[in-house]
Amino acid sequence: MKKIISKLFLIFLVVLVLSYAFYQFFGWQFAARQYKKHVISELKANSTAAIAAPEKLVYTLRYMGLPSGKAILRVDGVGDYKGKNVYFLSGKARTSDFVSVFFEIEGWVKSKLDKSELNSLYFQEHSQATGHRQNDKVIIYNQDEHYLEVDGEQFRMLPDTVDPLSSFYVIRLIDFELLKGGYSLNVKSRKRDRTLYVEYKDTELLDTPFGKLETYKIYIHLKRVKATSRHEISGYMWVTADEKRIPVSIDINTKAGPVSARLLDLDL
Length: 268
Hints:
Strand order of the largest sheet: 8-7-6-5-4-3-2-1-15-14-13-12-11-10-9
Radius of gyration: 21 Å
Oligomer: single chain
Number of helices: 5
């Protein structure tokens, strides 16, 4: 009798683990379908602006094909900062409950992007990872004299540099003709200068839980200035084929492994 109970318990445990694994792999599609009507309505909403505040984009994240977390990006508003008209941007991310059992990462970022010049004026970062010291950083960008300031220390930077969060939005805001010919952004939030190259590749009908969406397929390539190929990050981003260019899907390869993001929900 004990052997039968043990076998049944083992079978139950295996089924439970397999069911959970199945949900982890396909949960995004199930969850996304819950928001299907709302997402389609938001994507079809008439708008003449690429970005309008408030805006909220929600993504599920995967690392090496495994569900790893969720990210939320926001355009919180448009207003004045040091005499400049800026976008107030924010983002936050955290590992999934399953990943957090082994290793937890949680953080948020804020930035101020010059609306006319499309360069960064301010960037703030907070992150906490299991076994690591909490990271808090505020960066002030001096675009006139080409330096950024971190904790009172100054570092040179290239003209029209943007922070990592703002670069996500600049890709949506620049003239689409520039994307067709290939466009490079200077990106910096630490000591090293990086170049983000983006280029329109094709128009593709993308199959999503929200139905088939017409998208622009954009190649993205991030690398350190004067660095070897091992420091490079490259991949593709699919954005809606309209003036809003909402990122629907992102697949990139890094030296630590493949990373992807899939749109889950949004409010425009």
